[in-house]
Each structure stands twice: as C-alpha cells, then as structure tokens.
Design a protein that fits this description.
- This protein is α+β, with helices and mostly antiparallel strands.
- Helix content is 33%, strand content 25%.
- The chain has seven helices and nine strands.
- The strands form four sheets. The chain has a three-stranded antiparallel sheet with strand order 1-5-2. It has a two-stranded antiparallel ribbon with strand order 3-4.
- Helix 4 (141-150) packs across helix 6 (179-196), helix 5 packs across helix 6 and helix 6 packs across helix 7.
- It is globular and about 50 Å long.
- It starts with a strand and ends in a 14-residue tail after the last helix.
Length: 221
C-alpha cells in the first residue's frame, strides 16, 4: 500500500514504511481551509489544517476569495510512503482514526519532474472535501494566520503544524512552490517575533518548534 502525505504526514508520519518517494499529485490545490477540532484546535477554538481542493472546483468557486489564485498551478508536493504488506490493515486503521475529522480516502497517482508517467500509481490520499462538516473555507490570510497562531489542540500548537510543514516542504521539494503556505508561514512568524520581543528570543522559540531532521529517508526533488 502506498500513501501520499501533503500535510503533517510529510514531517510526522508516525507509521512504519519500507520505501518513500518525494513527488507531487496533479489536479489539486493545498489550502489551510479545514477546521481542526481534534488535533490542532478544540470545538470552542478550532485550528486550521490543510486539505486539497480539486483544481477545477477551486478555479470555478474560489478564485475571487484567494489572493494566490492567479499564479496557482494544479501541483501539490508531498511524500509517498510504501507500507509493508504485514502492516497495511494496522496502518489503515490508524490513519482512518488520525484523519477522522472530515477526511475521506481517495486514490491518486504520484509524479516526479523527471518522468511523465507516475512513480506511484493510485496512492491513498486523505482529503477533506468542500462539503465535509469541518470545511472552513477561504478567509483573508491575516485572519487565518491569527487563528493558526492562537490555536492549540491535543496534538499541540497549530503554528507548530504550519511551521514544520513549510520547513519540511522546503527540504524535500526545494523546487516546489506553495505561496499560500509560505505566506501564512511568514505572517505567523511576524506574530511570533512580536510576541518574542527580539530576534534572539524569536530564534530560540523557533528552534524549539522545528523538527530539524526529516523522519523519512527521502531524496529531495
């Protein structure tokens, strides 16, 4: 079984795998448009995590609400993991529970720039569709950044999720782009710097958040 991660699975897979490949899926846009009340927020104060929006739906419904729509392509970078056959049932049950808050399984091909054919066919991808009950939808980036900065849940601070995702994506896919993600990262870091009061204090704060080494033996693409 192959699994494609485009969010926390990039930097915190927490599963046993025997192979991994950096790559991208086509036809979708990654956005922080999914509420998180079970991991990075609470029912009273939801956080925001990423989901995938089909590119055609994004183009038809959300371009007026998204400041990056004019330069947005349909490629989403991430990491595909091959789960050993002996661990498939256990891993699928774990992932179904981990992604229970509005996500459903889809099957998508994974590509790399060096080839026009998939390097992984029909990888499992967990996606929170725009009609799921936890879909938060678009909002001004400043408001999303404030929400991420302030939210905490059972899995930790929402800003830790954002910052580690941006950090890991730069490591595994340095040629990839995600302006929505990286601008949110910049805005949250501005809020952190204001809280820290100095660059030195900010650097120390950031060093305690970022996972310095990627858990998967991946080769950057």
């Amino acid at each position: 079984m192959w699994l494609f991660g485009y969010g926390s699975l990039i930097w915190r897979p927490d599963l046993e795998f025997e192979d991994s490949k950096v790559g991208y899926i086509k036809g979708h846009v990654r956005r922080f448009w999914q509420s998180s009340t079970d991991h990075r927020g609470t029912e009273e104060a939801p956080g925001r995590v990423v989901t995938l929006i089909p590119y055609e739906e994004f183009s038809q419904r959300f371009t007026d609400d998204d400041m990056h729509s004019s330069d947005q392509d349909d490629i989403t970078w991430g990491v595909a993991y091959k789960v050993p056959a002996s661990k498939v049932a256990e891993t699928k049950a774990y992932l179904d529970h981990r992604e229970k808050n509005g996500y459903e399984t889809h099957f998508l091909d994974v590509f790399q720039p060096s080839t026009h054919i998939p390097v992984v066919e029909k990888a499992i991808v967990y996606i929170g569709s725009t009609d799921n009950s936890e879909f938060a939808g678009p909002a001004p980036l400043d408001l999303i950044a404030q929400q991420i900065y302030a939210s905490h849940g059972p899995s930790g601070a929402n800003k830790d999720y954002l910052l580690n995702l941006a950090h890991a994506l730069r490591i595994v896919a340095p040629t990839g782009t995600d302006q929505h993600l990286f601008e949110l990262e910049s805005k949250v870091k501005e809020l952190m710097l204001k809280e820290a009061g100095s660059q030195e204090a900010f650097d120390l704060m950031l060093s305690k958040i970022i996972v310095q080494s990627h858990p998967a033996p991946v080769t950057p693409v």
